[in-house]
UniProtKB/TrEMBL annotation:
This is ABC transporter ATP-binding protein. InterPro entries: AAA+_ATPase, ABC_transporter-like_ATP-bd, ABC_transporter-like_CS, ABC_transpr_LolD-like, MacB-like_ATP-bd, P-loop_NTPase. It comes from Paractinoplanes durhamensis. Gene3D superfamilies: P-loop containing nucleotide triphosphate hydrolases. GO terms for molecular function: ATP binding. The keyword Coiled coil does not apply.
Length: 245
């Protein structure tokens, strides 16, 4: 894959926590490219390093070794201020806990990234973004007045309002019931079909099977990749990693 084809490129990255005998190498010399305009799921047993990999790829954590590229932008060489600006403009985030601000309405939550970037978002932009996730009629509702699935859709709208190069999602359906999860995954599938680059960490084979490809980690290393796999095939591979030597 050429650099032009990759939304995010990881070159020999490693990330460790702790020191001496207590050090844990969460990501171990990973080289990987996430294709532009595609949805990639990242899976692995507990402690495999998948969330750390996501955070490094998104510039939330610094790597100890290697290089992280967002398109042609080197995140490993970027200053903290530059990384903050990139996270407000070219990178979108969706997390399991939604991370909405309870005192703000849905519309205000969606507008927040643009305001933090020094822009004055128009009501039309915010309204259209909420409409894209089916919540145009919930613009004035606060998070406590929304279901879990609706809150996650507001979080999706907030992540997408800046039209980011890449949407990173860490267990985006982990706190949702199956019906709400299916709605959120349908929306992510539509985003990917429209050319949005998505990198998603999940433990759920049903969610991973909606992606274009699934990357499997074990002990901080990439050990397999499946493309176009069914939920059963994804589950079987994950089980093999959990019980294998």
């Amino acid at each position: 894959m050429t650099r032009e084809d990759a939304a995010v490129t990881l070159r020999g990255i490693s990330r460790s926590y702790g020191r001496g005998n207590a050090a844990v190498r969460a990501v171990d010399n990973v080289t990987l490219a996430f294709p532009r305009g595609a949805w990639t799921a990242v899976m692995g047993p507990s402690g495999s390093g998948k969330s750390t990999l996501l955070h490094c790829a998104a510039g939330l954590e610094r790597v100890d070794e290697g290089q992280v590229l967002l398109g042609d932008t080197d995140l490993t060489a970027a200053r903290d201020r530059t990384l903050t600006e990139l996270r407000r403009t070219r990178i979108g985030f969706v997390f399991q806990s939604f991370n909405l601000i309870g005192s703000m309405t849905a519309a205000q939550n969606v507008a927040l990234p643009l305001r933090l970037a020094g822009q004055r978002p128009s009501a039309a932009v915010v309204r259209d973004t909420l409409a894209s996730v089916g919540l145009a009629d919930r613009a004035r509702h606060r998070p406590r007045e929304l279901s879990g699935g609706q809150q996650q859709r507001v979080a999706l709208a907030r992540a997408m309002v800046t039209r980011p190069d890449v949407l990173f999602a860490d267990e985006p359906t982990g706190a949702l019931d199956s019906t709400s999860a299916a709605v959120v995954l349908d929306m992510m599938r539509q985003m990917a079909s429209n050319g949005q680059s998505i990198v998603m960490v999940t433990h759920d084979p049903l969610a991973a099977a909606r992606a274009d490809a699934v990357i499997f980690l074990r002990d901080g290393r990439v050990v397999d990749r499946l493309a176009g796999a069914s939920a059963g095939q994804v589950a079987a591979r994950l089980t093999a990693l959990e019980v294998g030597p």
